[in-house]
Design a protein that fits this description.
By secondary structure, this protein is an all-beta fold. The protein has a domain of 31 residues. It is built from no helices and six strands. The strands form two sheets. Strands 3-4-5-6 form a four-stranded antiparallel beta sheet, with no helix packed on it. Strand 4 and strand 5 form a beta hairpin. It starts with 13 loop residues before the first strand and ends with a strand.
């Protein structure tokens, strides 16, 4: 049996408060706008290119 892949909607990556749109996570500096980085416990990681940054 193949495992079904769950795709996150880009609308879940934004927060709207008092009419202001704010990103919840960072964009990848290599891939550019539209490619979000995953927020892990100690790092940010891009699933597309593999770029990682340490969290402070």
């Amino acid at each position: 049996m193949a495992k079904e892949k769950v795709k996150k909607l880009k609308s879940t990556q934004y927060d709207v408060s008092s009419g202001v749109l704010k990103r919840k996570t960072k964009f990848c500096p290599k891939c550019g706008p539209g490619v979000f980085m995953a927020a892990h416990k100690n790092r940010y990681a891009c699933g597309l290119c593999g770029y990682m940054e340490k969290r402070s």
